[in-house]
Amino acid sequence: MNDARLLEDDGAAFIAAARSNDAARFALITERYRRELQVHCYRMLANYEDAQDLTQETFLRVWSKRESFKGHATLRTWLYRIATNACLDFLGKRNDRIPVPAELPGAGSEVHYLQPYPDRMLPEDPQESVVARETIELAFVVAVQHLPPRQRAVFVLRDVLGWPAPQVAGALELTVASVTSALRRARVTMRERLPGRRLDWRSPATHELSDEERGVVKSYMDAHERNDLDGLTALLRDDLRFAMLPDPGTLVVTAKDAVDGWLSGGLFQRGYDDWRCVPTTVNLMPAAVLYRRVPDDLEYRLFNIAVLHIVDGRIAELTGFDATDKPWLGLPATL
User: Fold this and answer.
1) The RNA polymerase sigma factor 70 region 4 type domain covers which part of the protein (predicted)?
2) Same domain membership, residue 183 and residue 216
3) Which of 28, 69, 213, 223 is disulfide-compatible with 228, CB 3.0–4.6 A?
4) Number of neighbours of residue 34 by Cβ within 10 angstroms
5) For the whole model, what pTM was predicted?
C-alpha cells in the first residue's frame, strides 16, 4: 500500500475510532506516529525528556479533540499541528528553556538543557522519518533554540517538514504574510548560527557515518584507554568548541583551553586513568561512551558520552554529556 493510501486509511480509521470511542483502536492508529512526533518535539525543545513528555501531552490532546478531526487534512498534519502547539504552550511557561549568554566573551550562548537523542528511538522507516542527518545533529538543534518559539515553529514546519505557507499559517493561526516574514528572519539566524553548512534541509542527506568519522572515534577511544594526551590533542582542531552539559560555564573555544581544563580536572591522573570506551551514535553523529574504573573497584562504570562533530579528520566540536542519569540512552551501567 502506498503512503498516500495509508494516510487516507489512517484518517478514516481514526474518525471511526473517535466516533465509537474505541480507545484501543485509537491508540493503535496514533501510536505509529509517536517516534516522528517525538523527533519533532525534540527539534522544538532540544531536550529528550521534554520531547517525551510533550509527545505524551500531544496524544492526550488528540484524544480530547478527537471529534474535531474531520479529515480535511491528513491525520499526520493534524497530529503535527497539535504537537507544535503543545510545544509552544510549554515554551510559553518555561523561562529556563532559552539559551543563556556564555561566560566566555565571544563564545555566544549556551543551551544548558540540551540532551542527546538516542538513534534507536528515531523512526525506523526513512521514508516516514522526516529526518535528515543535518536536522538532528546537535549544532542544528542548538541553532534552532536561538529562534523565538513561534518563529522556531514556522521554521521547522516550513523548512524541515516542507509544509506550504498557508498550511503553516493555519496550524499556528497566523497570516501567510506573518509566516513568510517569520521564516525570512529565522533563515537569517540559522545562517549566522550554522556558517558553512548547507541550508537546504529538505534534499536527501546521508544517515551513515563515514569511514573517516569511524576512524576518528576509534582514535579518540584509543587515546583515552592508553592515557595518551598527545594522541588525544592531535585529534582536536585548534578552534575546537567544547562543552560539558548540563554544567554551565564549561564552554571553551580552543583546543588548548579544553585540554588545560581536562588536565586540571584530573584527566589521566589517578582515578581518571583507567578507561574503557564503546563507540555509538546519537543524533546521527559519531560518539564515544566512556566508562571509568577507580582504584579498588572491579568494574568500569558509565561516566559520560562524548558526541563529536568531525571536519577533515579532526574534531571540530565535542559535546560531553553526563550519561549516568539518562537511562533512555540504553547504555549498560557497567562493563
Assistant:
1) 140-189
2) no
3) 223
4) 17
5) 0.93
